[in-house]
Specification:
213 residues, alpha/beta, Rossmann fold, 8-stranded mixed beta sheet
């Protein structure tokens, strides 16, 4: 199935991996950029290879097209409330479709920022979040709006000049000050894009398994 339709009638392109039904679901969001997007499918496939029994979905953010040109509804030029709401509705539909009890999202760059928006505006959508190369702007202000108690882990390449490690580290520090379970790791030698593959040399598989229990 190449689409997920929301209760409000929106439509997002997606590609699923692993079982169609599972107690646990990982949703992977790509970053910003021009053209079609499909690289996040690699991460979704790696999740099901490392964590048997887990369902994973590479979800196309609002306004983007997948590798075959299938578009998601929404406007790619904004990360505003309407796009965040569409993502929340899409993830809720995926939770219902798979029967998942717990849902964790992995987001790279702009996808990580979209997850931060979900944590702020749509509590309960996610049980956990993995932020890769996140700029996480305005950390203290954004954390003040996070409700619930999601588990958040952030990984940024130590050599990332686009989203320097200090940005995600500050966001994690602000979460922890609020009593939210959060952790930051600077991935040695990784840069803004290479962190997507480099995370598998860290403890990510174990961290995901813990979040999904």
């Amino acid at each position: 199935m190449n689409w997920v339709r929301t209760a409000a009638g929106g439509c997002l392109a997606q590609r699923g991996f692993g079982p169609a039904r599972s107690d646990v679901l990982v949703v992977v969001l790509h970053g910003d950029g021009a053209g079609r997007v499909s690289y996040h499918r690699i991460t979704a496939r790696q999740v099901v290879e490392r964590l048997p029994g887990v369902a994973a979905v590479a979800l196309v953010r609002p306004g983007y097209q997948d590798g075959e040109g299938r578009p998601s509804d929404g406007d790619r030029a904004t990360r505003g409330p309407a796009n965040v709401a569409l993502l929340a509705e899409g993830i809720a539909a995926l939770r219902a479709r798979t029967g998942a009890r717990r849902v964790v999202a992995i987001g790279h760059s702009g996808g990580a920022s979209a997850i931060v928006g979900l944590l702020e505006r749509h509590p309960g959508t996610l049980d956990g979040a993995v932020l890769l190369a996140c700029s996480c702007g305005g950390a203290a202000r954004r954390v003040a709006q996070v409700r619930g108690n999601p588990t958040v882990v952030a990984y940024t390449g130590a050599n990332d000049t686009g989203s320097p490690p200090a940005l995600a580290a500050a966001y994690v520090d602000a979460l922890r000050a609020r009593g939210i379970s959060a952790r930051f790791t600077a991935v040695p030698a990784a840069e803004h894009n290479t962190v997507v593959e480099a995370i598998w040399q860290t403890d990510l598989a174990g961290v995901l398994a813990g979040m999904l229990r």
